[in-house]
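Hey all, quick one. A colleague (J.T.) asked me to put the zinc ion job into the tracker so the inputs and the structure tokens live in one place instead of scattered across chat threads. No bug as far as I know, just bookkeeping. Sequence used:
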Amino acid sequence: MFKLRYLSNVLVGETPDISKDICSFTRLNNKITSVEECKKSIIFTRNIWLRRVIRASSLRGLIRASAEYIVESISRATFNKNAVCSYLNTLHKPTCKIPLEKDNIEMFSKIGWVEIREGKIKYKNYPCLICSFFGTSGLKSLIEITFAKNSLKNFEEVIENVDIKRYLFSHQISDNKRRKLLLEMAKKNSNFIVNVSIRKPLLEKLYVKGESNIYRVGVSLIWLSLLPINAGLIRLGRFKSRGLGYVEIKYTRDTFNKIAGLINTSSFYNVTKRALEIIKSELRARLS
Ligand SMILES: [Zn+2]
């Protein structure tokens, strides 16, 4: 269990094209009053009742982006190799897809993620560590993130506290009208309780290749991925360059004890150290 707090305003929202469509048939809130005004805004993600929400999948995306950054950094520094598939292309999109496409076999075998011997394929770093835990097309995520309220599992949380601000963007300065874009944001200091769990798959060895089990590797991944998030390096949602999306994810004492217990230590600094060792050893098994 973790406590999520927004340290800045956050916008997890739709593109202006979508708000344009939604604006034409609904009055969104009492702050954006006219359809014309709504068309100039970027609005928050809505649920089926058109209430503003943050979805658990957005949060998983945030933790995934951070985990990708950490694992790729460790791999490059330790093994001088790529370890995360989204770092193989400039679009930063996952390349591991299940089943393995013929067109990709050559590419993955060139970088040593699969080995072909006597016509048989050995899967080493395929799917990569990140896709194994966070899922990819054809593979369900082992990591489940939910919001906790009244001990119920929720995949979305309603945002009550909203701030609407007008921003002028550089591309609009050339626009004679100089109309400002309205951003609908969840307010700084909003709080949520978030549960992170790791599902046990049928065959663990398809997901982890080293000596540690999926729980040890999974909690190490989650622990390390919180560091760049809490430092503000990896942010949530849109307009991060405008200072939005800085969030803090803090563990509760019970959660800390659980994580520390799983990786056999008790002090904060040793948790980070042990988590790094576990990820390195898992990467060694995949990349050597
Ligand atoms: Zn992958």
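Adding what we noticed when we looked at it: The two ends are 35 Å apart (CA to CA). The chain has nine helices and twelve strands.
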